């Protein structure tokens, strides 16, 4: 117990806890929306495309997360736009953005002179180096997501469920789809610090998929996913600390265990 | 009477293939138009133009200021696994009537309860749609189209999943609703359609309007509309063409 109290007195650990909590909250809300709309693969494309921006920003000596954010938003808007306009099949355009982003990223990281210590952090997350500024950004997007869901839930639900019908009813479907694409992109990029590019997708999909087993409506999936995500990421973080393992991986394992347990409970009922 | 919606010289294409050529159609209050035609003939494209989901390449669509559309899409285009309750599906139809920032009104809640009772799902507000049968789901979507008190109801293949018992009551209901609103009914099932609609439009590239619900062989031949001939009689029946070699 005294060890726990000592641990919580370390700034790096409390920051990591807050980061896990806030990103799980954001991922619970945004992830439920992505999973309900069957946009998981699109989100994967956005995440990996953001590595291109990260590499360029790194090369130019700017904040890697600023670069990642710009690339992610452009990729999200590009996919939303191209799926509306047609021409390229959606899964093909996602795959192209996905690998092109990674290629640009690795090229610029390679071109950057000197040692590149952060590469593993970008790819697999580096929760123990979370700064106060990162937490403020996460808090801001968490508050934004909560407010949007609280005030506009019926509209978000209608458009996510049947966009064509919503458009016939006169809802501003296209603008809301673009806005939500931008928010999804920003939410993913801010969670990259915690989970890394390669692992972040699971934080958005595993809790939502688990909550989907029991919840009957999107708002309940969101609440359930946020709670499952927080439980899984906080316990994963402690396991990582005590066993000295990479936290991104342990968080995925705890989330997967929760998912499998819930699946078994559902099957037994 | 001023039409609710009027299509003039419409040319429209879907996935770059021209589907509709020079189509004219006008729908006035309390019309009941059946739209028939072969697959790929442009029925869905015509609906998309009417619903403002697809801008036509040429021609004009004039909508009356009072136009309020209730729309029942084909149920197989809908994600049945989506986590949404019956109540939320039906209430998502209210935006045709009220602005999106408005709260659900008392009147809309009453209407929701009435509709649920009518389709035999009384009190099932919080049942997720994933637990419904195809027929029940279609009824829920019909309620979504009706909750905003439309003056034009557009139905795309409403009898796909509906069981025979409900099909009869669906057509009775449409007859009743027609006292209050115009109805456009798209169907491949010519037999049932001609017994409920007032007029028929055959869409096959062009549109041929037939100001009666009787379809004769001459009508079909002159319109080049490749469908079966149907006729009314004491017992429901179909008449097939004589074989050529006989």
Account of the 3D structure:
The complex is a heterodimer of chains A (269) and B (246). Chain A is built from twelve helices and no strands. Chain A is globular. Chain A starts with a helix and ends with a helix. The model of chain A has no long low-confidence stretch (mean pLDDT 91). In chain B, the strands form two sheets. Chain B has a six-stranded mixed sheet, with helices on both faces. A three-stranded antiparallel sheet of chain B has the order 2-1-4, covered by helices on one side. Chain B is globular.
Main pleated-sheet profile of chain A: none
Rg of Cα set of chain A: 19 Å
Oligomer: heterodimer
Number of helices of chain A: 12
N- to C-terminal separation of chain A? 37 Å
Low-confidence stretches of chain B: 226-233
Largest interface comes to: A-B, 26 and 28 residues
Rough shape of chain B? Answer: globular
Shape of chain A: globular
Q: Share of helix among residues of chain B? A: 25-40%
> In percent, how helical is the residue content of chain A?
over 70%
Average residue-wise pLDDT of chain B: 81
* SSE succession of chain A: HHHHHHHHHHHH
- Radius of gyration of chain B equals 19 Å
Question: Which structural class should the secondary elements of chain B be placed in?
Answer: alpha/beta
Low-confidence stretches of chain A: none
**Most strands sheet of chain B:** 6 strands, mixed
Task: Please describe the topology of this protein.
The complex is a heterodimer of chains A (269) and B (246).
Chain A: H1 2-8, H2 11-36, H3 40-60, H4 64-85, H5 90-111, H6 119-124, H7 132-161, H8 163-168, H9 173-195, H10 200-212, H11 218-243, H12 247-268
Helix pairs in contact in A: 2-7, 2-9, 2-10, 2-11, 3-4, 3-5, 3-9, 4-5, 4-9, 7-9, 9-10, 10-11, 10-12, 11-12
Chain B: E1 5-14, E2 17-27, E3 32-36, H1 43-50, E4 58-63, E5 69-72, H2 86-91, H3 106-118, H4 134-146, E6 152-156, H5 164-177, E7 182-186, H6 190-196, E8 199-204, E9 206-210, H7 217-223
Parallel strand pairs in B: 3-7, 3-8, 5-6, 6-7
Antiparallel strand pairs in B: 1-2, 1-4, 8-9
């Amino acid at each position: 117990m005294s060890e726990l109290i000592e641990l919580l007195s370390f700034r790096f650990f409390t920051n990591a806890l807050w980061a896990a909590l806030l990103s799980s909250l954001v991922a619970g809300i945004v992830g439920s929306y992505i999973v309900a709309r069957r946009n998981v693969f699109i989100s994967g494309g956005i995440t990996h495309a953001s590595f291109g921006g990260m590499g360029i920003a790194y090369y130019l000596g700017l904040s890697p997360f600023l670069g990642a954010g710009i690339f992610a938003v452009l990729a999200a808007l590009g996919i939303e736009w191209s799926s509306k306009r047609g021409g390229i099949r959606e899964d093909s355009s996602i795959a192209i953005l996905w690998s092109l982003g990674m290629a640009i990223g690795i090229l610029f990281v390679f071109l950057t002179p000197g040692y590149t210590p952060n590469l593993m952090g970008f790819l697999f997350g580096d929760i123990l180096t979370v700064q106060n500024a990162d937490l403020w950004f996460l808090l801001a997007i968490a508050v934004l997501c909560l407010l949007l869901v609280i005030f506009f839930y019926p509209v978000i639900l209608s458009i996510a469920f049947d966009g064509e019908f919503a458009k016939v009813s006169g809802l501003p479907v296209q603008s809301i789809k673009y806005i939500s694409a931008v928010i999804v992109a920003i939410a993913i990029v801010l969670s990259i610090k915690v989970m890394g590019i390669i692992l972040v997708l699971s934080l958005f999909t595993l809790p939502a998929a688990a909550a989907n087993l029991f919840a009957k409506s999107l708002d309940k999936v969101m609440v359930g996913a946020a709670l499952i995500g927080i439980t899984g990421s906080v316990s994963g973080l402690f396991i990582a600390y005590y066993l000295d393992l990479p936290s991104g991986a342990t968080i995925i394992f705890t989330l997967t265990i929760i998912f499998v347990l819930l699946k078994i409970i559902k099957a037994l009922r | 009477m001023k039409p609710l919606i009027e299509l003039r010289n419409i040319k429209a294409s879907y996935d770059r293939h021209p589907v509709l050529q020079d189509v004219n159609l006008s729908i006035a209050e309390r019309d009941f138009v059946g739209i028939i035609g072969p697959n790929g003939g442009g029925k869905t494209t015509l609906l998309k133009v009417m619903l403002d989901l697809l801008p036509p390449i040429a021609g004009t669509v004039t909508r009356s200021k009072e136009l309020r559309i209730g729309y029942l899409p084909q149920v197989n285009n809908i994600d049945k696994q989506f986590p949404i309750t019956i109540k939320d599906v039906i209430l998502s139809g209210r935006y045709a009537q009220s602005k999106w920032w408005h709260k659900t009104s008392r009147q809309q809640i009453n209407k929701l309860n009435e509709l649920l009772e009518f389709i035999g799902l009384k009190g099932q507000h919080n049942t997720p749609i994933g637990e419904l049968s195809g027929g029940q789901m279609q009824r829920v979507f019909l309620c979504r189209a009706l909750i905003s008190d439309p003056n034009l109801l557009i139905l795309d293949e409403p009898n796909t999943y509906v069981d025979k018992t409900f099909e009869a009551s669906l057509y009775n209901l449409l007859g009743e609703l027609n006292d209050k609103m115009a109805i456009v009914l798209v169907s491949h099932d010519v037999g049932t359609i001609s017994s409920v609609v007032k007029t028929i439009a055959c869409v096959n590239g062009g549109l041929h309007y037939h100001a009666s619900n009787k379809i004769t062989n001459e009508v079909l031949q002159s319109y080049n509309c490749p469908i079966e001939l149907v006729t009314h009689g004491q017992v429901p029946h179909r008449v097939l063409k004589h074989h050529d070699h006989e």
